Backbone:
């Protein structure tokens, strides 16, 4: 099982599940990062820094702590 | 009048569409019960006038995700029944943007889809098929480019015809299928990604970020400062001197003069001096927001801010705080999360502002002229450390259970639009003037009446030993002995009160109280000569503009302030040097000045942005902490001469501070569940 923060840069994947029952799920829901949505990592800052991801034409900034809770399947 | 509502997610160009439709025929207000801004405007169609309401930007109408904004939008839609709902969609992110549509249809609202930013979509290599969108959704669709005004004629005629007859509303829409049919993503590298390659470059991102922040600070603080004297002089002439003369000529009692001229007039004058700084700040902020760089700046600094438990976006209010705390508190409104917004508002006043600098320089030059630079640096650093510590404490104790998710959209870059920026700046500025201004004037009236009232019942005793404020200062002075302020040094205590007006006022108070002018200024009051005042005001702009050149090398103006004060050679230095026990005592006093309480203007905006409870919490915390810090620094110096007394003070006060901290936190935690929504208003 992979999480969003483990993806290589440029690798295409699909969101499987947002593995948390807190604000993150609701936020991801509202912003469209829902199970089944495609996602690519564009860049990541060093260490625990944020990542820039792209999903269906929209760019997002997400902290790697939060990305760790999002399960993905690499395409 | 028929009503039209515009809804859409944040950053979809909703407000640009609103501005295009209504032009300058707008007014702002608040949604009932909350301080989420409500914008109304007039739209003139061929045969009728419409009221247009700009709803808050929301991703969803469920209020558990977006809180107040979503609640406001939902409540409006369900209760107000607008004739037509314009749903603004950013063409570059169409699939996401459509997510709100099923909720609108479920409410049975007549929807007109307005697809915006078609030019950006074209530049990004994204294809949007409007005809297909119309076919798939069964809803009317208009494509526009709000930044240029393209498509607005069609939009207006579509609105006009839909008001006459609206086609049958589809029951549901399969958003996914619609998106797939009418939107072709650019799978290559888009323009925004190419710009991001540089803006978020591993090596260049930080230098670019620092350059932008430096420009933001220099322009908003220093360019704004050029016009402060202008407002000060003109408003002083109109609102302070004129009513004083009028009241005197009418033979009005002195208390009325103190109330009207010094209180109300002085308050208006004080609010006015903030206009240029806040205007310039919002001008810069709007450019950053509109261009799309703001979310990149947050990305760059996010890792550092995460360490104190704040999102990257919180960096901007804090850096602005070094210029002035008032716009800093106001800028924290851009933070989405309640806990992050409250924390930022809480710690922003610890950023040492430009006004406090003049006090440091004034006192510092008297006591440690050769070390002034280092002392000032130490004070700035101390402010930052206190801010970091407070943020850490809040996060641990108060917001420990608040789940914070940090996912934000990064909008595509586009060219900022002048008319948008100006309207937005104006809205924010007028919100400061009218809403925060009222509170500021109220506090100024109170302080001014107390400082004008003499102990013998006479009026007009500002900055003299006789004023009620000086009497209060004298009475309270023993409280400050633990930080090295002796009985005779009561002017220092009075300075703390007048410093509430604005920190730089401390300089004037200390200067006059330590060395009272021998000859009282003549009491003659004449009608101000408006021509001369205006000329002086205009001259001040030119004069300050010359100083702007040095602002680029010395943005905090440390050297300039030093030169100014040294040039004046204040006569009060000798008295001050005699009354303060030592240079260290003076430094402890400065530490207290740095932290004890924000000025009235900051207090006014804090109350507006965070609510009464949070404001009181913040002020109590600053007072306790600054007192503890200043007295302990003073006692550390006493450790050698009187180890027992000093040691027991340090231990005792620390224990007391800890107990007070536990009590406050318990109090806040208890109220937090109810408080947060209230404070969030």
Residues:
């Amino acid at each position: 099982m992979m999480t969003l923060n483990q993806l290589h840069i440029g690798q295409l994947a699909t969101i499987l599940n947002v593995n948390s029952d807190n604000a993150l799920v609701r936020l991801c829901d509202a912003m469209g990062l829902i199970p089944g949505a495609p996602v690519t990592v564009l860049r990541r800052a060093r260490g625990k820094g944020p990542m820039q991801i792209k999903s269906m034409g929209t760019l997002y900034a997400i902290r790697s702590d939060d990305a760790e809770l999002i399960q993905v399947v690499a395409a | 009048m028929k009503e039209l509502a515009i809804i859409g997610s944040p950053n979809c160009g909703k407000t640009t569409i609103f501005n295009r439709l209504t032009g300058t025929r707008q007014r702002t207000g608040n949604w009932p019960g909350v301080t989420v801004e409500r914008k109304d405007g007039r739209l003139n169609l061929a045969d009728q006038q419409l009221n247009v309401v700009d709803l808050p930007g929301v991703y969803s109408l469920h209020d558990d995700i977006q809180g107040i904004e979503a609640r406001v939008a939902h409540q409006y839609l369900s209760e107000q029944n607008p004739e037509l709902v314009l749903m603004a969609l950013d063409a570059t992110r169409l699939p996401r943007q459509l997510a709100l549509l099923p909720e609108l249809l479920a409410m049975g609202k007549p929807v007109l889809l307005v697809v915006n930013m078609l030019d950006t979509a074209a530049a990004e290599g994204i294809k949007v098929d409007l005809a297909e969108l119309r076919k798939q959704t069964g809803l009317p669709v208009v494509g526009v480019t709000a930044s240029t005004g393209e498509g607005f004629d069609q939009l207006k005629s579509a609105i006009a015809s839909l008001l006459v007859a609206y086609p049958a509303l589809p029951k549901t829409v399969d958003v996914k299928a619609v998106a797939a049919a009418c939107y072709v993503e650019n799978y290559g590298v888009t323009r925004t990604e190419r710009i991001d390659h540089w803006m978020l470059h591993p090596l260049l991102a930080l230098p670019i970020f620092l350059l932008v922040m430096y420009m933001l600070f220099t322009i908003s603080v220093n360019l704004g400062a050029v016009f402060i004297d202008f407002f000060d002089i003109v408003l002083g002439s109109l609102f302070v001197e004129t009513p004083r003369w009028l009241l005197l000529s009418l033979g009005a009692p002195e208390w009325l003069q103190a109330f009207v001229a010094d209180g109300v007039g002085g308050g208006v004058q004080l609010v006015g001096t903030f206009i240029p700084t806040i205007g310039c700040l919002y001008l810069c902020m709007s450019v950053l927001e509109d261009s799309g760089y703001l979310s990149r700046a947050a990305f760059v600094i996010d890792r550092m801010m995460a360490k104190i438990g704040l999102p990257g976006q919180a960096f901007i209010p804090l850096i602005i705080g070094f210029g002035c705390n008032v716009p800093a508190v106001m800028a924290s409104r851009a933070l989405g999360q309640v806990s992050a917004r409250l924390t930022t508002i809480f710690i922003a006043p610890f950023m040492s502002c430009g006004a406090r600098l003049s006090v440091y320089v004034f006192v510092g030059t008297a006591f440690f002229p050769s070390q002034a630079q280092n002392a000032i640096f130490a004070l700035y650093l101390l402010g930052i450390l206190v801010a970091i510590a407070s943020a850490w404490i809040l996060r641990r104790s108060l917001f420990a259970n608040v789940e914070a998710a940090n996912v934000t959209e990064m909008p595509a870059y586009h060219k900022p639009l002048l008319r948008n920026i100006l309207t937005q700046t104006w809205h924010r500025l007028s919100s400061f003037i009218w809403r925060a201004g009222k509170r500021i004037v109220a506090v100024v009236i109170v302080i001014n009446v107390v400082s004008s009232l003499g102990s013998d019942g006479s009026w007009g005793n500002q900055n003299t030993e006789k004023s009620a404020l000086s009497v209060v200062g004298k009475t309270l002075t023993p409280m400050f002995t633990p930080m090295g302020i002796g009985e005779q040094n009561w002017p220092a205590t009075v300075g703390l009160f007048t410093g509430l007006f604005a920190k730089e006022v401390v300089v004037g108070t200390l200067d006059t109280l330590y060395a009272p002018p021998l000859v009282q200024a003549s009491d003659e009051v004449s009608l101000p000569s408006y021509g001369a005042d205006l000329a002086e005001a205009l001259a001040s702009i030119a004069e300050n503009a010359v100083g702007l050149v040095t602002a680029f090398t010395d943005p905090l103006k440390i050297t300039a302030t030093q030169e100014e004060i040294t040039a004046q050679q204040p006569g009060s230095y000798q008295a001050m040097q005699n009354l303060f026990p030592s240079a260290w005592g003076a430094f402890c006093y400065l530490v207290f000045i740095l932290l004890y309480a924000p000025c009235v203007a900051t207090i006014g905006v804090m109350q507006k942005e965070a609510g009464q409870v949070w404001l009181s919490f913040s002020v109590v915390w600053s007072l306790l902490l600054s007192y503890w810090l200043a007295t302990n620094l003073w006692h550390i110096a006493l450790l050698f001469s009187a180890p027992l007394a000093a040691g027991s003070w340090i231990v005792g006060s620390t224990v007391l501070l800890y107990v007070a901290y536990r009590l406050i936190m318990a109090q806040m935690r208890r109220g937090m569940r109810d408080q947060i929504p209230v404070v969030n208003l």
Observations:
- Chain A has one domain: 2-74.
- The domain at 2-74 of chain A is CATH 2.30.30.90 (SH3 type barrels.).
